[in-house]
Amino acid sequence: MLVLSRKLNQSIVIGDDVHVVVVAIDRDTVKLGIQAPREIPVHRAEVYDEIRRANRAALGEETLTPAAAPAAPAVPARLKSRRQPPK
Amino acid sequence: MGNATADTDADADVQTLHLPRFGTISYREDDLIVFPWGIPGFDHLKSFLVLSLPTQDHLLWLQSVEDLNVALPAADPWAFFPAYDPTLPAFARISLDLDKPEDFTILGIVVAPGDGSMFMNLMAPVIINLKSRIARQVALESSGYTVATPIPLIDLPAAQAEATPE
User: pTM for the full model?
Assistant: First the structure.
């Protein structure tokens, strides 16, 4: 991991397109400004962790599965959007 | 995009999988959904099927074809949360090439801890581009939605409620 020290208003460039600047420092909290191309998601790390844990939990116990061999087989679902295209 | 040629080649197109949870299933290449960015917690898995069971109306299964032990339950969020109003962030619209509302569908991953309760992740729905078959789980970070929103059991079909053990 690269560790850099920055003062207020100093910034970091990641790759060519991601800029991180220290916007404010208040006691134990650093406020960061992030400038990145719109196609790049930027999240607080704990958000990603929450999602990861929830997905692993979804895999968890098999309480939703039918017993043994289902009478009728599982099939690829017919996925539909909520909106129909205009006729 | 069906056409006469695809129909005559239909049998050649069909693949079979023997799944730990669902037994033997058949699918076509174009049933596959690709998650180029993986799914958080399963980042190495990119290729999935969305399966439905005739006995379970509301529930779908996001089944990995690369790790057959990975199948995540999911459902249409609006089946349980009619007022769900996710705002898709720019990175989702751009990376999935979402143009018109009819181009994509949204699923919420479900957690069932085993005590009869069920929760849906409304904070990070799975968005599937129906034309490209490309999908991504998208975090709606400041939306106020949570990863474990209780699903009102009273809305579940009776058969579903019976399926959960006491």
Answer: 0.82
